[in-house]
Amino acid sequence: MSLVVRNLVKSYGDKVVVDNLSFEMEKPGVYALLGTNGAGKTTTIRMMLDMLSRDSGEVLWNGEPLSTNTCNVGYLAEERGLYPKYSLMDQLIYFAGLRGVSKEDAKERIKYWAKRLECEEYLYPPTEAAAPLGEKKKRAPRKKSFKPKMADQLSKGNQQKIQFMIALISDPELIILDEPLSGLDPVNTDLFKGIIREQIAAGKYLIMSSHQMATVEEFCTDITILDRSKPVLQGNLNEIKKSYGRVNLHLKTEQDVRQIIEETGAIVLTEKEMEYQIKVTGEQQANELLANLMGKGVTIITFDLREPSLHEIFVEKVGEFHEE
Amino acid sequence: MKYSLKKWVSSMKNRKTFMGLGKVFKFTLWQLFKNKGNLVVFGILIVVAMAAVPVMAFLFEDETVITQTGFISNVMTMDEFLHLDEVSFDARYMVQIFYSILVLIVCVFSCAYIIRSIVEEKASKLVETLMVSVESEALILGKILAVMAFIFGMLALTASGYGISYLVTGMFMDTSVIGAKMANMGITSEIFSLGPVLIVIIVVSLLLAYMQFALIAALSGAGCSNIEDMEGANTASVLLTMAGYIVTIIASPFGSTPAIPLSLCPFISAFAAPTYYVTGDIGIGILLLSWAIQVVIIAAESKLSASLYDSLIMYKGNRLKLTQMLAMAVKNRKGVK
User: Fold this and answer.
1) What is the rounded average pLDDT of the residues A146-155?
2) Where would a tag sit more exposed on chain B, N or C end, judged by fewer CB atoms within 10 A?
3) What is this structure's pTM?
4) Which residue from A minimizes the CA distance to B316?
5) Closest residue of B to A164, CA-based?
């Protein structure tokens, strides 16, 4: 299977909102669409899913135009919503039906995902706890019948769980997640991340758009950075990082070493209680600094030479583009 | 023509435009029936329909109805006599007002439901999630059909309630007074014999009227982005429906003279044509021509809608005017889909 996006262009009047964007996914994994606000990420996704007409370009899935008929797609939109006054179960079964899942299968899958996303209490009546061993089960007091929950009775995070469930209910082969983790608390963020990892392991194709660089970096293999409708950087994340070289040094010591660092020619970016973020020209300068520090008997707690983070690459690339 | 039809059929096949329509229809209909407000309205209508006959029979129990006998004392020329309307003014007025009110109620109720349903979906930010699985045409047509089923179901049940009540009441009370009262208004069994042909004419006419106004309402609703705009969209479609209604009512005192132009005039024909047919002012030929014009209008509306729904459904901003919609439709023809 493969996904090919070729020469997508979209404009509103004179304003070009997506300018000749192309990328490919030849094997399962996560492709990240990154960009500044209004760069054209969501418009690209909408064009890919045939929701918006495009001025030119094509999107192919296994060589055929991508549509919900040629590919089982799961989509978590950036603008998330549910019917506020309809029961959650009705909505889930409806969306599953629209994706071609039978009612019986949908019920099974809803049960699975409700458990997995820890939101059973909104969909099912509470199960009666079993009586402790050796005790007779007491007659339960008369309970009010279970009223199915409406979407507007749920918190934003819990609504997001239901929407994530909708995206995954058809067991899609291509999953498009637009800002999947925005607005989630740390516990639910981990829950979502766990599910995303499972989907990757299951060989799914994921396209993720996000502003949370650390999250994207955790999952993605390939990226496109968009700025003002144009792709400014594209390719395999590891290759991109390698091309930048190991120029970021995190140093933590027990003595003040600022002078030694500056003598080596490296630049201190930030300093806080003998913890330094340093920019070096490469591995040679870093080794030189290490030798100097050791020669002067400095106690080193952390010496971490690394490639730039995606966040740093993003800021640098977008900054460069703006300067142009 | 042949090529264009072939192209259209092939594009329908490729896009599977109406895939998911059934699911949208079922879900919308189910939610309409689950809505407590709708159920209350439904209940009240059936109760009123069932109670109407016994209440009328009870109220007019002691009243002696004197049916009008046709003594005409007017002096008129032979020419005037020959051109005299066969149907009395009262009868025509009653038939026109009854049918027009029926169309008005059906269209106003339906338009409000359709607009609310579309705007709610847009305001709830659900549209994108839905459009992954279903084309915008299927989404909106599913709603139109569901509302149609709901409203026509409601009408059919109300009419059945009235019919059952008439039969049951007739077993215990004298219901002939109701028929006599109607005959006094000029609505006799000769004019209004509810045979299968008339039922078919009424149903087809109602369906055509519904589709014309429902498609306008759907376009109007799709041009809104939030609940606040809903009222404006509703007003626009209600005004169009009211215009058809008012013209028909105003025209009724003029007898058979405006029958043909009104029966062929778009939108007004939805109100006028079947009543003029019932009163004998137009023949079956004009009625069929009127239906054909209405079908063309529906087809034109559908074509316009099809080129607009995709853009409108994703549109966010102030409520769009018709001119802006048309500009959008023209622009959309240039896009790749």
Assistant:
1) 82
2) N
3) 0.80
4) A79
5) B129
Mean pLDDT of all residues in B277-300? 90
Shortest Cα–Cα distance, B336 to chain A (Å)? 5
B53 in any annotated domain: no
Query: Which residues contact residue B182 at a Cβ distance below 8 angstroms, ignoring those fewer than 6 apart?
Result: B188
- Answer yes or no: is B236 within a domain: yes
Taking every pair of Cα atoms in chain A, the longest distance, rounded to a whole number of angstroms, is 81
Which candidate in A5, A50, A51 is best for mutational testing of the B interface (most B CBs within 10 A)?
Answer: A51
Radius of gyration of chain B (CA): 23
B325 within some domain: yes
CA distance B328 to B309: 10
Structural domain of B297:
19-41+87-332
> Tell me, what's the ipTM?
0.79
The total domain count for chain B is: 1
- Domain membership flag for residue B56: no
pLDDT at A59: 95
How far are the Cα atoms of A85, B116, B149, B241 from residue B234, in angstroms, in the given order? 21, 9, 20, 11
Render pLDDT for A165-182 as a digit per residue (tens, 0 to 9).
999 999 999 999 999 998
Domains, chain A, with CATH or none: 3-71+173-241 (3.40.50.300), 246-306 (3.30.70.1150)
Is A54–B23 a contact, with Cβ atoms under 8 angstroms apart?
A: no
Of A110-119, B2-11, B106-115, least confident by mean pLDDT is: B2-11
